[in-house]
Design brief:
Structural class: alpha+beta
Helix content: 25-40%
Distance between the termini: 22 Å
Number of helices: 3
Low-confidence stretches: 1-8
Order of helices and strands: EEHEEHEEHEEE
Strand content: 35-45%
Mean pLDDT: 86
Largest sheet: 6 strands, antiparallel
């Protein structure tokens, strides 16, 4: 008769996703504005665009935007065509110059728009509210995400009556989805200062955690 012995416990794992979210009042606003000009002659379109773009920059400097807070994000020359009798005929050129402007005081975002339009800007994209020290808030969200993952694992283990090792054997961050891009809109020179409502910035962290638990096979 062979001796009987208690089988050694073996380990299995469960994988859970934890998410943590922190909200905060923004201290910075990113504004994307552009200047579009159109002429039959490409040199005229370029010269007009350069003049109007410089007018916008100088006007915004005059109301407090610092030189280092301007960034050119796109510049394009686009030929335009007419189609008489179905044939493509070159009719002129459009030039676009896009600027990102960092606004250090969110309450001034509306007046920044108004000043830009008054001095030649005729394109805009949506505002992006930001935090100057976003990493501090992300670390808080990351802590909450890890706690959330552990709470989920413990809840599953309690439900199934499993002895859980509450320190994960594997833990990794997951990327979060970036905000959807805004489509350009055309601004008119008669536009007044838009009533910009400050929105809280939401910082999200996501982790994938693997927890081990024991069972008797």
């Amino acid at each position: 008769m062979q001796p009987w012995h208690r089988p050694a416990p073996s380990r299995a794992t469960m994988t859970v996703i934890g998410q943590g979210t922190v909200t905060a009042k923004p201290d910075t606003v990113m504004i994307a504005i552009g200047v579009r000009t159109a002429h039959q002659n490409v040199q005229e379109a370029l010269a007009d665009n350069a003049r109007r773009t410089n007018d916008v920059i100088e006007a915004l400097k005059a109301v407090g935007v610092r030189p280092e807070d301007f960034e050119t994000t796109a510049f394009s020359i686009i030929p335009t065509y007419e189609h008489p009798d179905g044939a493509a005929v070159l009719s002129g050129y459009e030039v676009e110059h896009w600027l990102n402007i960092t606004v250090r005081d969110p309450k001034t975002a509306g007046s920044i728009y108004e000043t830009a339009v008054a001095h030649g800007a005729n394109l805009a994209r949506g505002l992006e509210f930001r935090l100057a020290n976003e990493q501090t808030y992300y670390q808080q969200a990351l802590t909450l995400a890890v706690k959330n993952a552990k709470e989920k694992a413990l809840a599953i283990a309690r439900t199934l009556g499993l002895p859980l090792h509450d320190i994960p054997v594997e833990l990794k961050e997951r990327p979060t989805s970036p905000p959807a891009p805004y489509s350009p809109i055309v601004l008119s020179a008669s536009s007044s200062s838009p009533p910009v409502q400050t929105q809280d910035v939401t910082i999200t962290a996501i982790v994938e955690a693997v927890f081990a638990y024991s069972f008797i096979s």
